[in-house]
């Protein structure tokens, strides 16, 4: 379905971004990976996922907190594959503390990586999308873009912000072939969440399995983690012709979290 298209997925060396990159590659999209840590393993996984569909894979190590890096990544993506047709703004970090204890540099980092990076990548991707009259911007927000939780001030502020950015981007392009939508996952068992499971296990003296149950039980009625594969399929849907008129939604996949 996406053969000949190029998808840039930020923060795709791990977790949800990697799941979305694999799902888009399976549909034939060429993929530009981004993120820190081991690159060879995720690159091999995305290549394997896209093998039958002939997808190619490139990588740029932009630090999404740095505007100059983002500009360089956008130029690199265009030089590799012509242009970015699908932009998935996914890179994100978490920090947990009460507002009065929240380290200022952590606030700045969360806002830069989880929110401002999506603005910069979107503003740089939009001209080519509009010229082609086709584009998809998918912002990975969170259920925390819809509701709050204590001790997550920067994260909740950034995620509510990215839901707002999604609506404005969708509206400004509503008469074009460029759509913008947000995905709002509940708990997904990635390294970002495993750290919170570890903290619960340490705090309450629990096993890993019991700490997972405690975490889910506090928020997620289904008592199940959403998976990167499920989120990847939602991203594929947003890229499909059936989603041509889906514009500015914040679509939760959260096991009923926000329904409460
Ligand atoms: P993860 O830690 O598994 O992956 C994060 C990715 O972002 C990694 O590839 C990492 O290298 C990259 N990254 C971090 N800082 C970066 C930076 N400065 N520049 C470039 N890349 C950077 O986390 P995840 O759980 O897969 O999270 C992905 C997105 O999904 C985040 O925006 C997160 O807020 C969101 N999300 C996660 C959950 C969850 O339960 N895991 C729920 C809702 C939303």
Automatic annotation (TrEMBL):
Keywords: Oxidoreductase. Gene3D superfamilies: NAD(P)-binding Rossmann-like Domain. GO terms for molecular function: 3-hydroxybutyrate dehydrogenase activity. The keyword Oxidoreductase applies. Residues 5-177 form the Ketoreductase domain. GO terms for biological process: monocarboxylic acid metabolic process. It is an enzyme of class 1 (oxidoreductase). Its EC number is 1.1.1.30. The keyword Acetylation does not apply. InterPro entries: 3-OHbutyrate_DH, KR_dom, NAD(P)-bd_dom_sf, Sc_DH/Rdtase_CS, SDR, SDR_fam. Belongs to the short-chain dehydrogenases/reductases (SDR) family. This is 3-hydroxybutyrate dehydrogenase.
